[in-house]
Amino acid sequence: MNHATTIRIELENLMIKNGYSMAQLARSTHLNPGTVSAILSGNRTLSMDELDRITSVMELPKGHFYERYFEEYLVDLKPNWTRISSILYHSVELDNLDLFEKVVTRFKDKINYASSLFEIAEDLFENGKMEGAALLYRAVAENEKNQYSERLAKCQYRIFLIKQGDNQQQNYQAASQFEPFAERLNELDQLDALKDLANTYRSLRRWYKVEEIVIKLKNKAHYQYHHKRDGKCINLEPLKSPKRPLFFYLAYSSLLMAGVFEARGDYTNALQCTYAYADLSWVKEDDEQTLHWKNLFREWAVANTYGNKLLSGDFEILPEYLDYIQNNEDEILPALVNIMEAANRFNQNVDPILHKFETELNRFISKTAVGMYTEYLIVEYMIYLFYEIADYYLNHNIYSKGYDFLVSCLEKSASTNNKSYIIMCVGLFESFRDKASSEIIAIYQRIIKGVRKNEKGNRFTLFGG
Fold this sequence. Notes:
72% of the residues lie in helices and 0% in strands. It is mainly alpha-helical. It holds the Pfam family HTH_26.
């Protein structure tokens, strides 16, 4: 007995159970009597909407017959695109990703469906259905893996964005896999792709990669901005534009490069880059979006100028810096990172500052979102901050507080697979192991055991494909 017969028998049983005539069944399902007759006789292919109506009248949950529908109309018979797209949307709506994947697998190798599957992937991506979108992007990418196509590059870009999360190892793998495809994108899409790649490498503190990407971003943004403004660019697609104003990518290149110099301890050049994105007088546009970003760059420049001066050893600006962050709550977390790093580097006493911001520190420990910063970025800043505070307290013989922050840093580093800071935490712990209580040692050993277990799991994942 095939599945078409089974669904029809279910419908016939409903008629018998409720004593429905054809007309009564049509009324209860809000279908035309002729449609019901054709379905029962097997002369009409059910649509997903009709199936949902019938399922509702049977008092069964929506999606109850989707597996049968797939096997009848998408496996046994030659389907049309309407039925394929319909079951994809219906299954993802119900979070039935197993069925969704079955449908994708069934048709992913059919080249004539690649464009349509990609369009659905884009729609799901825009509507936040990331798991379904990722399955489709991977299917289309696999289908076109031997082609040098923009669509393949767009699939890889979307997969990269979807994979971004709080696991640094996975973020790095996603960036490495996407990077070779970035310059296959449309010239303007490349700006956003390079910006996103640079942000990922910056969060991973892979500064040589940030610099490499920034050089490309700056050159491409310079070409697009000045040629477009002067009316010389012939390659720009009509109505095509990046997510942000073109000047943004030039200014952001300077901001990223300032971070590279800061990481190297070259605060002179970091300040020069900061001054570059602070002065945007060369930007001619004056629309609302442009003014919004110009104001943000000026605000970032103020905060980062304070930070770079402090990190270079200029503690005279510290009172002014503290006044600034008191009035700019979004900047408290990154500012405290700078203050603690500078205090440790130049052996300064900042106990009053730690006391002053004790409430904020407790809030960071509970991982409450702060202003414009995302949860992931907050965790990264907390890791940096907790390490610096732990280092500060331990070197000032305040062991209890030092170990509290060190344990918090190690836990958060382990949860995000931040290997650099895991290693740094281990080094700091071992330097003061003789001062640790048995309770702290037990907590430390538990966290390290979890790190080792996770590392073994990562190895199996990597070698197991």
